[in-house]
Amino acid sequence: MTKVEVLLPVGFAGAEADEWSRPRGFPRPEALAREVDVLPGVGPAVKKKLQRLGLRTIGDLLTHRPFRYEEPVPERRIADLEGDEDVAISGEVLSVSNRRRGPLQMLTARISDGTATISATWFNQPWLQQQLLAGTEVRLRGRQGKYGFDVRSFDIGDAEATADFAPVYPASEDLAAKKLREIVGAALPASLPDPLPADLKQREALPGRDDALWALHRPRSLAEAEAGRRRLAFDELLLLQLWLARRRRERESEVAPALGPPGELVARYRDVLPFQLTEHQERAIAEIDGDLERTVPMQRLLQGEVGSGKTVVALYGLLRAVEARRQGALMAPTETLAEQHFLTLEEPCRLLGVTCALLTSSTAKRERDLAPHADVVVGTHALIQEGVEFRDLAVAVVDEQHRFGVEQRKALTEGRSPHVLHMTATPIPRTLALTVYGDLAVSEIVRPPADRKPITTAWVTEDRSGAAYTRLRKHLDAGRQAYVVCPLIEESETTQARAAEAEAERLQKGELRGYRVGLLHGRLRPAERRELMARFKAGELDVLVATTVIEVGVDVPNATIMIVQEADRFGLAQLHQLRGRVGRGSEQSYCLLISRAREDLTDPAIERLEALVRTNDGFELAEVDLDIRGSGHLLGTRQSGLTDLHFAHLRKDRPLLERARALADELVDAEGPLSDEVEQAFSERDLSAA
Ligand code: ADP
Ligand code: MG
Prior knowledge:
Helix content is 36%, strand content 18%. It is an alpha/beta fold. Helix 6 (222-252) packs across helix 21 (654-670), helix 18 (603-614) packs antiparallel against helix 19 (618-629) and helix 21 crosses helix 22 (672-681).
């Protein structure tokens, strides 16, 4: 068992801080909550500037993360400057001017050091003009560039030169980098209570918390700065894992009905399925069966590509409730999805003599009253609205669970403790699963049913969209069906619907003349939508022009080709989801991504499109996505109420994450109350507020 020492904090002496030496005294955690103006040199004006940067308290300052450090560079005479080298130069300002170059504000100063004269340039910092007066001494770091000497950082006047490895904070507008460094320096504490066990710190090469903060803001080398970051990352991950471990534990004290071993109904279910379950489906089912035998409520995440056969597994879970003479419910995030699920489940339920009802906000009153008595209830969040009284809910399936807030998910299970299966088609890298869903057990359906051929994806630019439509018409002429996805419009569902209408009309007169075209968007009434989908499924329509409402849940195996217009506007996960609408039968399917001209695309857009062409593997794409976007924004954390990770890099810090998880388990299991104290000690960034 790990022994955790909680050091008792003493008084606070931060305000006496001498700029470069460590202040004496021991700040209490609450000292970290004090406002920035307790520091020397922070008056009302500076306080306001700091506030604009989101820095209100001492704790904010201490966790303000530098995005880079000044690296040591050689000093050069201006006459000796060559390109392609980071250097430092010193000289006197002769003149300064400010002008626009395209979207950029460019400030240029003529600088001389007696050996020669150069133009030094600053971008988008027009306010510097007042400081760079003629005659001012400056010291610049940077390199010779296209428009002269490209300044990376600088010192003005006779101030001490910026130290090597000085931190560079995210753009600080009118607050000089130097001033911000001084303020953060003044906030650095001599010592902080550090509850981490010494042996753990040693094993993981983690410095103490106070040393970590010093290393972050005053490193003597890049390695030292990185060690500091890792320690702060560990604290952050530990807090997150404590929160998750506690949730796991709370659930374990709840009691759900134990459903016993699988019975006759699910045996018949296997018989009515027109196919054999795949190995991965069988494994997921076995895992679910294992959970359902216990009285601890199941909390399982079922992950799998779109079309990998999750719904088939989910229905198995629902039927396990029904055969125990209880109820199953499936909650989907949109009405379209709920209806789709209902259409899928209705048929097998009927064959098995199981009653199945749909409950959404547009369900009529009479049916609404009856629905909660059905064996299987499918619906939207209308399921959790007041007045819906389930007879005896034993298994709940939550589809695309990251789209629901924690509150909504909780409400479904409020006052009852059913077994819960969360389904998601958004593949989540293991690292993310360990953080965001760290409180769930995970089942993965990695491979789709065997007779599927991998979808072929191609990326073409607009000028070649004619060829893409020729390809699409070939499929239609061969009796297949197709999707055309309209450009993404952010404003509103109504604007999007209107644009889709115009687009469908244009296509009907142009590329799709003579074909039967249907239009699916989010503004259709549920009954209209249902009818449209039924007609498409029955082959009465050749092409479905759609907004992203087809993203999930639509299942038409005869649809073998999809065109996505302006694909560069979509996110990676979203495109992958959309693509999953084809390739659901045994025919070879195609996804054609049309983008604007390559030179109009951002690098991340190009990376996304290239990744989609390269692979169909959702887990690989999720990793790529994580790389492109960085791990700052965790999928699902907004809803969970957790702050984004600030210091941790999920990929780089994977081993740390595992250690944090293990320690959190240990703390919560073995020393329940002590974990509170640990959390208290870390609470300057209020991760635990969730
Ligand atoms: P998901 O919910 O993961 O998107 P579904 O359960 O809706 O996937 O399955 C997608 C399609 O594949 C459905 O038409 C379903 O009937 C079919 N399917 C599911 N499992 C199998 C299997 N083992 N063999 C053949 N087809 C399957
Ligand atoms: Mg499905």
